[in-house]
Design a protein that fits this description.
Elements (H helix, E strand, L loop, with lengths): L4 H7 L3 E3 L9 E2 H18 L3 H10 L4 H10 L8 H4 L3 H9 L17 H17 L2 H12 L22 H18 L15 H18 L16 H15 L16 H6 L6 H12 L5 E5 L6 H16 L3 E6 L2 H16 L9 E4 L7 H7 L20 H4 L48 E5 L1 H5 L7 H9 L1 E5 L7 H16 L4 E5 L4 H16 L16 E8 L2 E6 L11 E7 L8 H10 L4 E6 L3 H13 L5 E5 L5 H15 L10 E6 L13 E5 L3 H8 L18 E5 L1 E3 L5 E3 L1 H7 L1 H15 L15 E3 L3 H8 L12 H20 L27 H8 L7 E8 L2 E4 L4 E3 L7 H8 L2 E3 L5 H7 L16 E5 L4 E4 L2 E6 L3 E6 L3
Parallel strand pairs: 3-8, 4-6, 4-7, 5-6, 7-8, 11-16, 12-14, 12-15, 13-14, 15-16, 20-24
Antiparallel strand pairs: 1-2, 3-9, 9-10, 11-19, 17-18, 20-21, 20-23, 21-22, 25-26, 26-27
Helix pairs in contact: 1-9, 2-4, 2-9, 2-10, 2-11, 3-4, 7-8, 10-19, 13-14, 20-21, 20-29, 22-23, 26-27, 27-29
Organism: Streptomyces minutiscleroticus
Family: In the N-terminal section; belongs to the CRISPR-associated nuclease Cas3-HD family.
Keywords: Antiviral defense, ATP-binding, Helicase, Hydrolase, Metal-binding, Nuclease, Nucleotide-binding
Length: about 950
């Protein structure tokens, strides 16, 4: 190879994985570099999207696959330095014997020279010298330096004395590592690996994530056993090892070269079996007409079929622009589950085997029957066996627990180790799910994914391994449902994500029934800022011709384009009057609400009650129950344990959903909190709701008379809404529930009250028994109501002090925006920087998903606990299942029963819970449980947490009472 024999000898002694951390087998550095390159080759062939392959071909002069393998493999070249080679005394002996020596090195972990940064220092001068292109070297070196999850600044490339290696021996060895590897993968020399173009920063971030993915796969010692003999190492051998590992792990991508549909509407009519509505046709046709990947914003009434239209549009966009999967982001865990099942059915129409590549991304997925059937070998919900049950298989829930996604060597840098164990990496079979994707931070790498919007927001945070999350998005079409649900804090991360996705050329589809015009404009500007690579893009969105409407934004020829539906699009259903009335009540016990419920369904019917506070929901339920309500009575809120919440949600859908038919009770009342606000496909005859901001109030109204053909008694032929949670105050100024003001702020509630007053009359002048005849016409009034609610003109009656409330609201919103800036992936002034250098300035240290959730969702922190009952002989799960003297859990079935008792505590109990609760001793060996806090209820069924006594009732859920002294 033209290298000195002595240098080759020294390279053959450099270790990459120590026996102590590699299942007892040393793996030489060159072997790991070649293994990683071989994995990258398979990722190119079977995983990386066609769009990204094209980009890598463009910047490498048509040699994208080879260049990708080289870059992934070269990532660990920095291990050829004293700071790394000295970390294990046993492994260091042959290195020292070969003449590669070192003096005293820093031992303080904070000052330890990291091999990822060392790789950049080793490569950069050679890249500049041999490529003759400082710009190319400038965007490539951060990819090497960042492969352990953070991108350093150039100022960090200063090794401590002796850590990088000095003298001819080290210089020759380091040069030899790079040259031997480079020639082994197929380049004649380092100069030949020079890119002829550059990737945009967002594309660099995606590429960085793919490098990490290749490294993590190749670092699995159960799949790539160590090779300590240099004579056994070759690229051909690495390819064989990678091929075998890929098959055992069951890894695969999504669509491979998805063909264009033969007819424009086939994705709707044939794939989804729907008779297209005008709004659905409009969205799909705009997906066909966009000349480049862009942003689609679909605004249409509740129940219009937006999500199915979005899936059809996603197929068109993926086929046109070379994407290989879809991520559907939902506002909550509860809304993710039905969407997951819908996406499963859709994906099967392409290839039944693809269902094993659909991930459900949220912490309670083990309670979804379809998830368990596919990923855990359980019985399918339709009664068919899933055919994938294998003795000894681990639970999907266990595999999705508390590993932080690190590889073993990360432990040297203060991260928890997460080297996959042999049984976790066991092969799923050729068509089964790839459990590798269940590791933390890897979920978005699955070809098709449905989950909470948090996963999209996480990809816009300045956190470790953010590149891995972004790589999972970059090859997909991204769909965000209920986009209006993001508050001002979360919206900062949404806007940041849209900016990066726009620059990466990722098509995005946003869906909403109640999107304020300012939010629509903000989303368009963010996406186009990414497309054009500028932070100051403002492309005014034309006023829509009507409602429903579709907004399209894209870049072409260096200019931004934003268009809306040119002609009015007819909604699926004719607008109908909804009668509104006030029900004055600010008593948290809700006695007047309970009385109104009894009156509303006295002659039959189904009522939905949506209140803003769990305690209020529980109180109203108790009132109805204790006074002998004659009918089906259900309570649904966020303080139910996971199992009860899932069962109750499913029951509501069965009794009130689109296929309820004969199941629909003659008399039924569901008392719920904001869980019922959106993506809850039930049909109520009458709605009683606490006042909420106008867009959310309209969302609640969207559960009213939702399905055609539902039988209703005569009293409920016209949809009716009673608005409560508000009462007359001084000078007729509305007085709100304290909980409502704390959640939403006074200004947005005043604006909503003003709009309701226009339809229902003054709060002091009407009674619930006589709703105003005018009301609102739904859905035609929706856009105007939302625009007025969030517009700049005053709409409240004189004396309501709207201006003062606005000033308070504005100050709070600005502070929340400022709070979010601390965690955003990129500062505004740095958006135009061309490389990833220094991206992780003052990065967040959030490690677990729960900690990261707190980063992207504003508000007081809260924790989840597993409710356990103390018994005389040990512990029992919430449902009574025996656990053992120390809480031992012996199998997956018992684990399922135990974690069915998971519940989230209100924020006011967080400090007390963290100080006083801990996992049970018997949980130490169960990955999903070992870090979970146990809320142990004593034999009287209660537990004192701080100043509150907590209990759990099978119907009421978590009950909290302030302890009196």
């Amino acid at each position: 190879m033209g290298l000195p024999d002595e240098a080759i000898t020294r390279v053959s002694q450099l270790w990459g994985k120590s026996a102590a951390r590699n299942d007892g087998r040393t793996h030489l550095l060159l072997g790991h570099l070649l293994d990683t390159a071989a994995v990258a080759g398979l990722m190119w062939d079977r995983y990386v999207s066609a769009a990204f392959r094209r980009r890598l071909d463009e910047i490498s002069g048509g040699r994208g696959r080879l260049w990708f393998m080289w870059l992934c493999g070269i990532h660990d070249c920095g291990k050829a330095c004293p700071a790394f080679q000295a970390m294990d005394a046993t492994e260091a002996e042959p290195v020292l014997a070969a003449g590669l020596t070192w003096g005293r090195l820093p031992t303080d972990r904070r000052n330890r020279w990291r091999h990822d940064v060392a790789g950049a220092v080793l490569l950069m001068p050679r890249l500049i010298a041999e490529w003759g292109d400082e710009e190319a070297a400038g965007w490539v070196w951060p990819l090497v330096a960042g492969h352990h999850g953070t991108f350093p600044s150039a100022a960090a490339l200063r090794p401590p004395r002796g850590a990088q290696g000095r003298g001819a021996a080290w210089e020759e060895a380091q040069r030899a590592v790079v040259d031997v590897f480079t020639r082994s993968v197929g380049f004649e020399g380092l100069a030949e690996a020079r890119p002829v173009g550059s990737l945009r920063k967002a594309e660099q971030l995606a590429l960085s994530g793919l490098i990490v993915m290749a490294d993590w796969i190749a670092s699995d010692s159960s799949q790539f056993p160590g090779l300590a003999d240099a004579d056994l190492i070759s690229f051909a051998g690495a390819r064989r090892r990678a091929e075998a590992a890929w098959e055992r792990l069951g890894l695969r991508g999504g669509w491979r070269d998805l063909p264009l549909p033969e007819n424009p509407l086939d994705p709707l009519t044939d794939r989804l079996d729907v008779q297209p509505r005008a709004s659905q046709r409009e969205l799909v046709e705009r997906a066909w007409s966009m000349p480049a990947p862009g942003l689609l914003v679909s605004e249409a009434p509740m129940g219009e079929g937006k999500t199915k239209a979005a899936l059809a549009a996603a197929e068109v966009l993926a086929a046109r622009f070379g994407l290989d999967g879809v991520f559907v982001a939902m506002p909550t865990q509860a809304t993710s589950d039905p969407m997951y099942e819908q996406v499963l059915q859709w994906v099967r129409t392409f290839d039944p085997e693809l269902e094993s590549q659909v991930a459900l991304l949220h912490g309670r997925r083990r309670f979804n029957a379809w998830w368990r059937a596919i990923w855990d070998g359980k019985q399918r919900p339709d009664g068919d066996g899933c055919g994938c049950e294998e003795e000894g298989r681990h639970s999907a829930g266990d595999m999705a627990g508390d590993d932080f996604g690190a590889i073993d060597e990360d432990a040297d840098y203060g991260m928890a180790s997460a080297q996959p164990s042999t049984d976790r990496a066991a092969g799923p079979g050729p068509d089964g799910p790839a459990y590798w994707f269940l590791g933390d931070k890897r979920g978005l790498l699955t070809a098709f994914a449905v989950g909470t919007v948090d996963h999209l927001l996480h990809a816009a945070t300045r956190t470790r391994h953010v590149m891995l999350r972004f790589a999972g998005l970059a090859g997909k079409v991204v769909v965000v449902d209920e986009v209006h649900a993001a508050d001002v804090y979360m919206r900062q991360f949404l806007v940041e994500a849209l900016r990066w996705l726009g620059q990466a050329g990722v098509p995005v589809v946003l869906l909403s029934a109640t999107l304020p015009p300012a939010q629509r404009q903000q989303c368009v500007d963010a996406y186009l800022s990414g497309v054009l690579g500028r932070a100051d893009v403002h492309q005014p969105v034309p006023e829509p011709a009507g409602y429903p409407c579709v907004t399209v934004a894209y870049g072409v020829g260096g200019r931004a384009v934003a268009e809306t539906s040119r002609e009015a699009v007819a909604p699926w259903r004719e607008s109908a009057p909804v009668r509104l009335a006030w029900l004055a009540d600010t008593d948290p016990a809700g006695a007047r609400v309970a009385a109104a419920v009894r009156d509303a369904v006295a002659g039959g019917g189904v009522a939905l009650v949506v209140v803003n506070q769990v305690d209020r929901a529980q109180a109203i339920y108790r009132d109805l129950r204790d006074k002998g309500f004659d009918g089906v009575l259900r309570l649904l809120h966020a303080r139910l344990c996971a199992a009860h919440r899932a069962d109750r949600t499913a029951e509501c859908l069965r009794l009130m959903g689109p296929r309820a038919a004969e199941n629909r009770p003659e008399r039924m009342v569901v008392i719920a909190t904001q869980l019922a606000e959106q993506s809850f496909d039930v049909d109520a005859d009458v709605l009683i709701t606490d006042l909420a901001p106008t867009d959310l109030l309209l969302q609640r109204i969207g559960r009213l008379h939702r399905h055609d053909g539902t039988r209703r008694v005569a009293a409920h032929r016209v949809p009716r809404v009673l608005v409560t949670g508000v009462a007359p105050g001084r000078d007729e100024t509305p007085r709100f529930l304290r909980a409502s003001e704390r959640i939403y702020g006074t200004w947005s509630l005043l604006r909503a009250a003003a709009l309701v007053t226009e339809a229902a009359g003054a709060l002091t002048a009407v009674d619930a028994s006589e709703p105003a005849a005018s009301g609102w016409r739904i859905p035609s009034d929706v856009p105007a109501l939302v625009a007025r609610a969030y517009g700049s003109s005053e709409i409240c009656p004189a004396g309501w002090n709207e201006a003062g409330a606005w000033e308070q609201w504005q100050a709070k919103e600005q502070q929340r925006e400022k709070n979010a800036e601390e965690y955003l992936l990129c500062r505004r002034r740095e958006w135009s920087f061309p490389t990833l250098e220094g991206l992780h300035y003052a990065g967040s240290r959030a490690a677990s998903e729960e900690q990261l959730d707190a980063v992207v969702r504003d508000g007081d922190p809260s924790v989840e606990v597993v409710v356990v009952r103390r018994a005389a002989d040990g512990y029992r799960a919430l449902d009574g299942t025996w656990l053992g003297v120390h809480g031992e859990v012996d199998d997956d079935e018992v684990t399922d029963r135990l974690v069915g008792g998971t519940v989230r505590l209100p924020p006011r109990l967080t400090d007390a819970a963290q100080a006083g609760l801990s996992p049970l001793p018997g949980w130490a060996g169960r990955p999903w449980l070992r870090y979970r806090l146990a809320l142990v209820l004593e034999e009287d069924g209660t537990r004192l947490l701080g100043a509150d006594r907590v209990s759990y009732h099978d119907v009421l859920g978590l009950v909290i009472k302030r302890e009196t002294r």
